[in-house]
Amino acid sequence: MTSSGGAGLPAAHGVPPVTGRIRTEPEDFRVEEVLGFEPDGAGSHVLLTVEKRGANSGWVASRLARAAGVAVRDVGFAGHKDRQAVTVQAYTVPVPVDEPLEPMLAHSGAGYRVLAAERHGRKLRPGSHRGNRFALRIRDLSGERAAVEARLQRIAALGVPNYFGPQRFGREGANLQRARDWAAGGAPPRDRAQRGFALSAARSQMFNAVLAARVRRGDWDRLLPGEAVMLDGKRSFFPAPTLDADMVARCEAMDVHPSGPLPGRGSVPVTGEVLEVEARALEGEAALIELLAGQGLEHERRSLRLPVRECRWHSDEADLLLEFTLPRGTFATAVLHELLADAWDVGEGGED
């Protein structure tokens, strides 16, 4: 088992060459949501493009609901974005089709402002976006500055291990500890959201443990016989009891990826050596797996490899400016973990 910190999670491309400071101020960590679709231009909802600074996504949703005179549950957004950052994301608010949109542009407040408003036909749901584009300033780099270029080239070409970031586990691992206490026979968290966070942390911990084992073996980014193969950018997978040259080539091209478990009820879709690796990595976690199954979570899969696309960087005297795009549900911390020796200690202020 690994801890919820980054110390037990190996880097795939060698010891990170430098240390540095991130999040010195919110503008150092910029995130722009990539929806992957255009507003419909008609319908009973308004799609708002909102920039927020130092604000929680859910809190902004509540402010938009109050301004529009609707219930907060009727406000939609695709994912929680980092709080200690400047982020741009979409929200939907129900507005009758005969009402003008101009007043929606005035629905700004401390910590956020509405940049655009367009008609849309449906409410945004969690996970309905394609990804996120990051622009980070890493200050006061210290260490092997000459190695930064080579490391970033490897990250851009080969991707990084798709670890869940530290914020998934809560402050000082509180979400994971709640899950372990619950699995050991303790009372479940009273709040529904806290129960969800605990279950999510348990699955994330076990996925990270399997991924760390594959990184140590050196096969986190290649397929093994018996793999459950993930399609790039998708949540679907297919079993591959044997491999052929075409499948190997598709993996090298990042069209498909090896996967790891998000435990729950149902059969495990891997066999052979892959099954053995996962079983060894999850020894001692039977109680957590039983808890997840008992709460109705189905066994799912997640890509072990995270492609880092549109990766660009520029150095000035003391800082590094780094830009990249990641698919939804993944963490910038996983990229920084390969570059900065202390990245996991800082982490992100939100999720997704």
Summarize the structure.
The protein is α+β, with helices and mostly antiparallel strands and 352 residues long.
List the topology elements.
Layout: E1 18-21, E2 29-34, E3 45-53, H1 57-68, E4 76-77, E5 86-94, E6 112-120, E7 131-143, H2 145-158, E8 160-161, H3 174-183, H4 192-217, E9 227-231, E10 237-240, H5 245-252, E11 256-257, E12 259-262, H6 272-281, H7 286-294, E13 300-303, E14 305-306, E15 309-315, E16 320-327, H8 332-336, H9 343-346
Parallel strand pairs: 2-5
Antiparallel strand pairs: 1-7, 2-7, 3-5, 3-6, 4-5, 7-16, 8-14, 9-10, 9-11, 12-13, 15-16
Which descriptors would you attach to this protein?
disordered C terminus; 16 strands; alpha+beta; 9 helices; single chain; 352 residues; 3-stranded antiparallel beta sheet; 26% strand; globular; disordered N terminus; Pseudouridine synthase
Description:
A hairpin with an 8-residue loop joins strand 4 (76-77) and strand 5 (86-94). The longest helix is centred in the middle third of the chain and has 26 residues, at 192-217. The strands form four sheets. Strands 1, 2, 3, 4, 5, 6, 7, 15 and 16 form a nine-stranded mixed beta sheet that branches. The protein has a three-stranded antiparallel beta sheet with strand order 10-9-11, covered by helices on one side. It is of the alpha+beta class and 352 residues long. Residues 1-5 and 348-352 have low confidence and may be disordered. Helix content is 28%, strand content 26%. It has nine helices and 16 strands. Among the domains are: 37-120, TruD, catalytic domain (Pseudouridine synthase, 2-Layer Sandwich), CATH 3.30.2350.20; 161-306, TruD, insertion domain (Pseudouridine synthase, 2-Layer Sandwich). The radius of gyration is 21 Å and the shape is globular. The protein has helices at 57-68, 145-158, 174-183, 192-217, 245-252, 272-281, 286-294, 332-336, 343-346, and strands at residues 18-21, 29-34, 45-53, 76-77, 86-94, 112-120, 131-143, 160-161, 227-231, 237-240, 256-257, 259-262, 300-303, 305-306, 309-315, 320-327.
